[in-house]
User: Fold these one by one.
Assistant:
Number 1:
Amino acid sequence: MSRHARVAVAAAILALLSACATAPRKDYSKFVAAQPRAILIVPVVNKSVNVDAADYFLSTLPIPVAERGYYVFPVNLVKRLLEDDGLADAALVHGADPGRLCALFGADAVLYVSIEKWEAKYLVVTTQVNVEFEYVLKDGKTGETLWTDHEAMAYQPDSNGGGIIGAMVAAAVTKASPNYMPLARQANWKALSFPGPGFPAGPYRPEYGKDLVADTRL
Amino acid sequence: MNRTTLLLSSVALLAVLQGCARHQTMYAWGDYDEALYVHYKNPQERERFVASLDAVIRDATQRGEKVPPGCLAEYGWALMEEGRHDDAIAYFQRERDQWPESRVLMDKMIRNAQQKRATNPSTPAKGPAGALKRS
């Protein structure tokens, strides 16, 4: 499947999910008042025991944010520059003053993401993958929190396919290297979708400034 | 429905899906995120990440579309790591021209590249970005 098709499938699933969702609408007044255009995604804080998860997860963040219509700073370059400045520890970056961070890069807002869970549960004939993330967007001028979201997702490979033997083979494969990435990507698209829990359209989307009014789920 | 009709309709459906898909994302990202993931997974795969950035930039430029945010800057950084300061500056300038929001950072990067060029004009390639200390 091509990349576009993959994204389309993810988007379609999302559309369905958000259509069913009855979550109460968030208060977007601070977000709208701040009018962020340029979003700085800083390295991810990892609260899971999987040491590599932070970098892996960082790679999934820029596309969904940019696709919401915002300028996103190059995440790898930002990470390297922070490391050069002695801020290799993501927790230090998350603890730093958002105003100073934004001034350093010329950003309007900072997106802080933490991994709460990134684990595989090994059941008898299958492996269940669990991810859980916390997202916080802070304003570069006031330091105020503009938006937050929390996503938890689980995936258990379908064990009906090849009967019990097929399931055991699948479990052996995922046991060797459980694949977290599709689940992580899906969590991001869900977190950022709008209408939904996510960002209203940014300045690079045609519906910028109109979608909040159109969203009548009140 | 016979076999041929079924086949034809699935091909048609696929074509429609692909057609829609082209408009689902604003930018053509290629395999940017996948390549970055692979690079973080295995630092030896830096070349693949750099090649992916190059492909995204060429693709967008050829079609007269905007290069997705950040890609020109990441590519410039890769060139800077290889000691190609003049080329790096050109890409930082392109990022700045396409995305005015990047001005503060790109001005800084251009100054950095100019300083490096001045102090050490013939810096040999610094090696894969991933070879740098990972935390």
Number 2:
Amino acid sequence: MFTRFFGKPGERPLREYFGFPKRLDSPAVVLPRLSGILVEAARGIEGREPDPELVFARLCDAFRSMPAEPVDDAVWKQAAAGRAAGPPPSEEVAEALKIAITKAGWRRLHLLVESLQDPAIHELVRLRTAERDPDRTAVLLFLAFANGTELLTIDLLLKSPFRVEEFARKWVAAIGGTVAEEPEKRSAQRLRNLDYGEVLGNLQKAQKQREEHHKRLAEIERQRKQEEYERSTRE
Amino acid sequence: MSDLAKQIEHDWPEAQRLWASSILLHPPALDSSIEALAYTDLETREVFVNEAQVENLKLRGSVQGILAHEIGHHIKYPCTLALHARLQLLEKQLLHLRHYSLLNLFTDFLINEHVGKTHREPLIAVYTAMGAAESDPPFCFYLACYEELWGLEPGRLRGPLARWMEDKFPGYRGEAQMLASDLFNLAPNVFTQFIYFASVYSRYLGLEQEPKPFLVTRCHGEPSPDDYADAIVPSPAEEAAVERALKEGWIPEGKARDLTGQDSEQDRISTLPGVLGGDARALPKVMAAHYRRLAEPYLMVPPPEKRLGEPIVPTTLEEWEPGEPLRDIDWPATISQRGDRYGAALPLRREREDTEEGVAERPWRARIEIYLDVSGSMPDPKTVINAMTLAAQILALSALRHRGLVRALIYSGNAMKMWAWVRSELRISRFLMNYIGGGTDFPFKVLKESIEECGADQPIRAIISDTDFDSNYGKHQTSARAFAEAAKRSRPLVLLQHGGIDKNVRRYTEAGARVIVVRRLDDFPRLAAALARSLFGDRARREDGGGP
């Protein structure tokens, strides 16, 4: 769960967990465009076995086009198996990288790699790779993010535009970007509202009250039926 | 023409285009006396806008959005009163609300999701201007759903009520977001969407006291009796929705049984307006329509009616009268009998007959007089399916489908009759919805008078009762005499008796009546149908040479 790794959204800017203290105002990401790319990618991978080799190859291609050095195969494989080398920028990222990436995680990675089609995302990732070596960037950003968003399955993304928006906003926040035509405060608030982990927590609270409500409702209904029965037998 | 009227005239076509390229609807009317901001009448297909509220709340900029919203009620949600009736009964079964209804909120939400794609800000302006009240928690939650749907900051539409909601309904925002996210994925089955919607909203409805509805826009229309009668039986889409709801855990198993199980029909009847409250005026019409539907499978299709035969066989000669068809004149016979001069002045016509004897005769028309026991031993047919009433409906409708005539009498301690012969299915089926209750006293006096009144042209008589009839029969000697007379002269007299005792049955049979003993109440419709077949079917007609 994202909250498990990165705390409640809004407590601390998401980019800081990934070791990016600075926010990059330019270029701003046009959210509907990014969401469109993600949905398209999700449709493409839905119900299919992910191909880790292909995902990795496309990531390397994207890095080459930046231009940046392609990711080292051994570093990537080791990190994907849950044995990332090097000091992580935060405990939370370290936790996320301890887990070997699952099929669902590979699917999300496919989405992240596809998101590089968006020029703003491409540029933001390029700027981040320029800050440190591409291997570290790839491992910390892509693998940790894919593992940290375990609740956002492809099925869920295809069902709910809210979850696509959440995925997109979190991704933008993780690489330290901004959303076009939106103040930072508003972006942070929207991210807080959208957090699926938070929503599920809310639902648990609601469920407790709901169960109590339904018990009482059932009792009222039973009484009503009893009254009806008594009335009909009187008649 | 006011400024608002001019604006409406301008915005109306644009608002319609949001739903379809061509819509035939009356242009909206301005009416400041309505309670809501705007109002849609599904019966007359009219839209009203509250001019005073629009001006007072400064919502001129939202007029196109408001119009588009109202058109949405006509075009999609609920579109027809038949669907409205189904959703209404489903809601009553799910939530047992007496006055409050979620239907308007539900259809508004579906509509605004569509309208909000292009008119989000105008709709936000409407809900912000209208506000919310603590007295209607479902409406407060409803606004939270819009805040989630449109990505607004919490409390934008509800103001200070946001905090109050969190205290009273912990976790409500999560529910609002899930609903705004998931509801539209459940399309196109509107019943699945509604059950989900109602299951989420149920938590926000008071248990002891219903919320006071907070009205923004309103969609109204009274479904017809046929709409309600249709809605009594769950449709396949509703069944699929209930199955899904059970699987998803939106409703418990017991509720699913109420909705589509064996007794679902009775459960639905109890939710009809007028059964457990509300306006009961339409109830007899609704139930009559339902009984007609129940009777339908038991009604036999009448055989094609024989036409009058073609008279081709020449018979006797008669005088031809001026005005009669010239082709009827038999000139060879006229000339041979009267000569050319006298014959030309006074021609003879030839009578012709059909080749098949009897075919040219007018088909027999059944007439049936029904005596239905509606004493306290049987339930009110308007609230529970009464097997004896259904049997009466089957007999009556069978006769009418065979172009017959029907009159009926219902009795318990008193009697109530519709004694004119009728051909209308509606009239007779609605009459049979009457109920008296109390003790039983068969009206032998009316039976006797009917025999006298009908003279040589006696109808079929059917008495539908239970063993109470035995005590009525034995009460006075005159009763037995009237019964015997009726048995002798009716064509025939049939007693459909629930739980008939052998020795009494023998007594009625010996008196000349046909007795059908109905062992189980459920057998009434089947046996009534069998009786109708024997009375009005082709065989009975041939056997008795024109009438049973």
Number 3:
Amino acid sequence: MANIGKTTKKELLQLYREMLLIRRFEEKAGQLYGMGLIAGFCHLYIGQEAVVTGVNASLKDGDQMITSYRDHGHMLALGMDASGVMAELTGRSGGYSKGKGGSMHMFSVEKNFYGGHGIVGAQVPIGAGLGLANKYLENGKISTVFFGDGAANQGQVYETLNMAQLWKLPTLFIIENNQYAMGTSIARSTAQKDLYKRGLSFGVKGVQVDGMDVLAVRDATKKAARHARSGKGPMILEMMTYRYRGHSMSDPAKYRTREEVSEMRDEHDPIDMVKNRLLKEEWADLNALKAIDKDIKSIVGDAVEFAKTSPEPDPSELYTDVLLEVDL
Amino acid sequence: MSINIQMPALSPTMEEGTLTAWMVKEGDTVKSGDVLAEIETDKATMEIESIDEGVVGKILVAEGAQNVAVGTVILQLLEDGEGADDLSAPAATLLTPSPPAGMQAQDGVHNEGGKMDPVLQRDERDKRYDRVSPPVQSTPVEMDIPAGTEMHETSIRDALRDAMAEEMRRDETVFVMGEEVAEYQGAYKVTRELLQEFGAKRVIDTPITEHGFAGIGVGAAMGGLKPIVEFMTWNFAMQAIDHIINSAAKTLYMSGGQMRCPIVFRGPNGAASRVGAQHSHDYSSWYANVPGLKVVAPYDAADAKGLLKSAIRDPNPIVFLEHEMMYGEIMDVPEMDDYLVPIGKALVRRVGTDVTITAHSRMVGRALEAADILAGEGISAEIIDLRTLRPLDSNTIIQSVKKTNRIVCAEEGWGQSGIGAEIATRVMEQAFDYLDAPPARVFQKDVPLPYAGNLEALSLPNAQDVVNAVKEVCYED
């Protein structure tokens, strides 16, 4: 077992549940896509569960999250309702965006989730803008911005790192380095592959973290969050992770070998890692884990049922939510 | 109960596929994530993974089978404790997925049969435009300027400045960011003395990174502030247009009405003087094309102030187009505590009977000049200052055309897909029977704006061009 992170039975069981919910939800989403119930693009988070789960474990109430189009896991981690997320995937009125956003575009002001953005890298300055608002309002919150190794090559990321450090914004830049920008491996896209160093020329500190180890993610985030919250400015956390599925549902992922995927899945699976520790510490036996699995399956099953039965948006919704009423 | 695994649709267009290879055989134990089979779709070869655990009970479709319809049961998986006896004949599963959005009629008006959707048919003609679509607010009544109100001669530059200063005094969450807005006092001095009054927290100098700071502004707006983002000119906002449109304008809709983005993007737009093509672009029609934005382009100082104040208070993203060559013009501004001009309402600047001329921003001045010349020749022109380009106040235009029966649409930008093209279309749709002549347009020549003084002058529309167009629609030589 790689990690030696300190934890408790209660915490580890909770992290296990959260990661398993994301895994089962995503598997089901993939299946519904295959059945034609989900259309368009659908980017699954399978394999990367430890990143958002570990980050979330170190955040405080009110801290914000913003990410790319691979966003289902982030919403579930923040406690957004699985049914509302799944119903958005199926384009139904019960979805978080009433069916008008889809897989890539969901938000929850209540749960501090700021999307769900479809343009690679665009969420990075927006997330820093949330940080600017936090600092301006002196509300003690930090914003966390998730983006991938692909987005790490976008120019606006560097414009943002510069300003975030210049203005000491309380923002964490969390790079989910899953090794592939769609079909282009990091070796083929990136001249200097240590993405945690990307802020050095602006004075932004960065660390590399085993993103398959939820406790390592938790610990690194805790430190970085303290840094950002204390007024020292942003930090970069490069989470080394891996997505098991293609970039989106319509990606056959032929740019990597089956052995590579199997190796990650068999040797480094973030959920298995926690499962093994739970068993080793005798915090849970196989029956207890099975019970959790059953419970999660039933949550996901309910979400699917809701997503299938929630009606499509009323045609009158076509023209709503374009502009807000003015109340001068 | 055994689990039936079906032929999946792996792309929105896939209806059938070839089962190229089985990666498991009957009796194998599989867990979630294991590859079961390889299938060939209309686009690529892909793997099917199991999402359940169990033992492969029966393989129902042979390796190499072609044209396997989506939804066909291809494999039955036995769950914990089940044996082959538990397998039941798979019920014919017919999947009828609704077609993905992208495959439906593009404009959302027609259904696949080509007939009008009955729900949309109602008022379709009205609803197509922003001006009457339900979410557009009932336009607040324009504040009357009480009789006896003193007028104060003010430059447009200072009128804009005063608007920002008043709103910043009124609302702590309003702040200004942009290049040279603070220490330098504004590249065009529009933010003069704001730093002194409000401090560096609320008047923020940015590095020269339009893409980045426009995105930061959007995030700040989502985070509870009311940013005014100044672009040194709108030409540079091309670097930031993704955030103006994709991040600001579309978010309310994409979030089902949850995520607001109250932000004002402002700065000088269009041709300046002898600065060449890259610094002389009029973006009016670009932004006016986008639902989710409001687009404002004032002509005089009073409107500059009243509209900017309304824009800052508006809960929606606003594109506010100023004109560099007009910043120094001195005009009357009413001395009032809170002078607001409603967004979405055009203004008849000169009443006339023979022809309607529409214009916005600096072109209003050209149109007024033209009206003077025309008056000398016995033609009475009615001048409509559009003031807001989205939502466009077509009612005022249509009412005017019903009276004058002729229209000239003038603008400083290019003609193709321009503001004038839009207005001419609406007039023909809504007042065709009232027209005594085809609508005419006046616009910039269809070339990048040249540097040479004589060519630049030839390229931009002037009062005489408006006069000529009016004569054309009046059938006078």
